[in-house]
Amino acid sequence: MRLIPLPLLLLASLAQAATPASVPHEQAEALYQQHCQSCHGANRLGAAGPALLPESLGRIKPDEVRAVIRDGRPASQMAAYASVLDAPQIDALVSYLYQPAATAPTWSDAEIRASHRLLADPDKLPSRAQHGADPLNLFVVVEAGDHHVSILDGDKFEVLTRFQSRFALHGGPKFSPDGRFVYFASRDGWISLYDLHNLTLVAEVRAGLNTRNLAVSNDGRWVLVGNYLPGNLVLLDARDLSLVKHIPALGQDGTPSRVSAVYTAPPRDSFVIALKDVQEVWELSYAGEPTFVPRRIQSRDVLDDFSFTPDYRHLLATSRKAKGGQVIDLDSGAAVIDIALPGMPHLGSGIYWKRDGKWVFATPNVSQGLISVLDLQNWKLIKEIPTEGPGFFMRSHINSAYAWTDVFFGPNNDAVHLIDKQTLEIAHTLRPMPGKNAAHVEFTRDGRYVLLSVWDRDGALIVYDSKTLEEIKRIPMNKPSGKYNVGNKIEFAEGTSH
Ligand code: HEC
To answer: Is the minimum distance from the CB of 268 to ligand 1 under 6 angstroms?
Structure first.
């Protein structure tokens, strides 16, 4: 799963949260302490229930927060408070939750270490897959609706096991280079290490209070976590998630920043990091005996999310100022060019493929119904393909003639378009479950089948033959958000995002 465009949601939330409530702030705080802190933590940092800080609530709107407090959440410990609290009290709690804590929350190395739990010794577990399925054609399916993960056999399309995850997994799971281990990050900073050979959880640690995503080094030794709160990077030992060190996200002049995204760049033996509040991109080398001192690259604008070119030399990132994208040369450290693109391109979800022997890059757009296609030789816009609405994800496979993209936002969000990778025309439009949001797709390792998510409480994972587009199987699921094929992910296969 890609990163949700948080600023949009956050702005919308703050505007609505400013509605004056008749119950004063101190009383709201008292109500919180009386009714909520036992589960959500004394400082709103989370406990049995999720964290309730403004950063955490950025992904939902105040109206939803109000509804949750009033009506509770089904099949969870979150009860309905409508009979305990009156409407002004609930409104006051909503405003209170969108306000930053009086003292900025901190999360120290000692707290990270105290949260660490080792549940199994990976050295004592069998090192061969114990489940009989092809370990490189498994799918890790994140079910956001009720915070579960399913491990799916990618040949039989049968669920091998299903387990509860931490609240709100974020940014997409990442794999060890051999595909044995998968690493999850949750919105609230919990990192989980799961052994896919033995279908068991190995370790957990809380690396931050609000986390964007994580990356795993290509040598399998390190996990790097990018946090919004506190604004830092947390480096963990990939073997057992023990803390190695944290690196504050401070700009050259000491300005504190949040971390937008971290990715691994395998041919460079490095992590590349986007900062949200200062105009810098960082590269952290993990070659040899690394020092983890960031190399700072000046960017033309702050970065939300980005993609790499196929050779990992250039980085394509959104630029608000340029109203489009900025290209950064990671070798020279120079900002190469600004690319004017309409709307808000979601470059982090962009994918590339070969067309007439040349690399092209296509990106969905979260504010306009179009796909922009760029020539990666000269950074020129080749085509804008109109779609039925703004979209979020894009996927293809080297063995597929089509690039699949959703229409995530707007009334036509039940549609998916299949773009012909050579003609750049929409070849097919599917409506897998009319009226329900069709979203993220992922291919099997050989590209023969496509798995599509319908994001609904009564949603499904739908398997298609990627050539005939015939439906092969439908597995009911509760908001299956993203799904990740182990083989495609560890090969950094063409057509998948990093
Ligand atoms: C008994 C434990 C418990 C208590 C007490 C409790 N909650 Fe919750 N709350 C939870 C759990 C667990 C969830 C996550 C539910 C889910 O799976 O979606 C939750 C979810 C929420 C959410 C949604 C968060 C999100 O990011 O989706 C809000 C808002 C919330 N609670 C507010 C409150 C408030 C305000 C109070 C006090 C009036 C309160 N809760 C009391 C356990 C609790």
So the answer is: no
What are the residues whose beta carbons fall under 8 Å from the beta carbon of 259, sequence distance 6 or more? 212, 226, 227, 228, 231, 232, 233, 249, 273, 274, 275, 276
Characterize the bridge pairing of strands 449-454 and 174-175: unpaired
Q: Residue 201 pLDDT more than 70?
A: yes
Q: What share of the chain in percent tops pLDDT 90?
A: 86
Residue 147 and residue 168 in contact, taking contact as beta carbons nearer than 8 Å? yes
CB of residue 38 inside a 6 A radius of ligand 1: yes
**C-alpha to C-alpha distances, 288 to 285, 293, 431, 477, nearest whole angstrom:** 9, 14, 50, 44
Query: Is there a shared CATH topology between the 6-97 domain and the 109-490 domain?
Result: no
- Tell which atom from ligand 1 comes closest to the C-alpha of 32: 37
CA 303 – CA 330 distance, rounded (Å) = 14
- What is the helix (H) or strand (E) element at residue 451, kind and residue range? strand 449-454
Residue 50, ligand 1, Cβ within 6 A:
yes
Fold of the 109-490 domain: Methanol Dehydrogenase; Chain A (2.140.10)
Q: What does the alpha-carbon distance between residue 479 and residue 315 come to, in Å, rounded to a whole number?
A: 32
Question: What are the residue ranges spanned by the domains of the chain?
Answer: 6-97, 109-490
Between the CA of 35 and the centroid of ligand 1 the distance, in Å, is 10
Which atom, in ligand 1's list, is nearest to the CA of 146? 17
DSSP-assigned letters across all residues of 420-448: ETTT-SEEEEE-SSTTS-EEEEEE-TTSS
pTM of the model: 0.93
pLDDT tens digits, one per residue of 121-171: 989 999 999 999 999 999 999 999 999 999 999 999 999 999 999 999 987
CATH number of the domain at 6-97, out of 1.20.120.790, 1.10.760.10, 1.10.10.60, 3.10.450.50? 1.10.760.10
